[in-house]
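The passage that follows is intended for readers who have already worked through the single-chain material. We present the inputs for a multi-component assembly, then the predicted structure in tokenized form, and finally a short commentary. You are encouraged to pause after the input and sketch how you expect the pieces to fit together before reading on.
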Amino acid sequence: MAGLLSLFKRRRPEKAPGCSAVIVAAGSARRMEGIDKVLAPLGELPVLVHTLYAFQDCPAIDEIVVVTREDLLVEVSRICKDFAFRKVTKVVVGGAERIGSVQAGLREADPEAELIAIHDGARPLVSQEVIQGVVEAARLSSAAAPAIPVTDTVKWAEGGRTVETVDRSQLWAVQTPQVFEAGLIRGAIQKAIDDGEGLTDDCGAVERLGMPVTLTRGSQENIKITTPLDLAVGEAILRARGEGLL
Amino acid sequence: MAGLLSLFKRRRPEKAPGCSAVIVAAGSARRMEGIDKVLAPLGELPVLVHTLYAFQDCPAIDEIVVVTREDLLVEVSRICKDFAFRKVTKVVVGGAERIGSVQAGLREADPEAELIAIHDGARPLVSQEVIQGVVEAARLSSAAAPAIPVTDTVKWAEGGRTVETVDRSQLWAVQTPQVFEAGLIRGAIQKAIDDGEGLTDDCGAVERLGMPVTLTRGSQENIKITTPLDLAVGEAILRARGEGLL
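Having made your guess, compare it with the prediction:
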């Protein structure tokens, strides 16, 4: 009977491991025309609202932790309530550096979650395909990130003069969400903090442990909003999506 | 008397060397939704018309040679006539590869020109500042190109897995126009053709001779139109410029 039960258990479809998303919307104090970039309007909704809809609507995501700045805490909490983002379990204050904000988010994420997706709050146009693809890859390989090929001609320069053209055939521009086995990213970020290392992205912390990161298909549309031009580009993408052009 | 004359000559302000522009609008056979990218409409004018206006209006440019595909020759010639681009001296047919098109343009440019500016026809939003800046730098240093810092996190990857994060602090994405002392670029392109080398940009041919290229200030707005998304971005830039946002 015990044998039968365990057989039955084994034959049940395995529940996919849970994935918590940490949305880093702490930014620096840098503002665009007086508005924090994550709250800037994009197609009539704040940038962060687009971002949260993408994760709220994604079946691969079970929980969302939002990390923000202290002075935005009330506004961001209000947004989560007003738009009824029911997957958002916590809105927390981040650190002065990005890595501190990531750590604050990791600390608040469900300890049972097997995967953690870390995403820039300022990437509002991430698609379901990109999120699903990277979560699936992380299930298989512990660490994954979406990327697009570098299409610009890239030069290595010193003192304003080119030294050489970089072979771009193996260069990839990485995006977010970057998804990791939870214990791996917690350990990697803690080690980076202990070592006093800055990070441009979370993959870097994992790579520093000697582990490769699987790259998945990113999207040209998954832009990071940093400048007024980026906002104009974001508007153009939304408009083109609305017209079925993209 | 002869001495006085030569002194007089030396003291006259030197005429700045002439600069011919070679606009490469030959492209591949790749089309966007049935329309060749250089003829695609951008804010009600074809992409190439924006490009030609930028060079026509630039005091640093004395002559324009347009290189195009055989099947676009009539249409491109008609555009140059209809819009009265009086600096356009020739519209010529390019080669199957970009380097052949550049060579065709170099062959037709005024042999007296001291500088040659080579520009992608599909970069319609280049500003006067970018063109002027790179022409001035080339006058001082024989070879110059506009560039912007790489802001993406860039990974070196093999077989779909990251190997390392590339230090981006010395990485620059180069744009066009790239401007060269005329004899230098003619020799460099001829050597690249003789060596059977492909090129992603013309600077590469000069770098291969062991000469550095001076980088000047490019612009995020100086995009290359390659995809429908790029066209949407171009529209957004035009609109933002119209509203005084950029």
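Commentary: Chain B touches chain A through 48 residues (CB under 8 Å). Chain B has one domain: 17-242. How closely did your sketch match?
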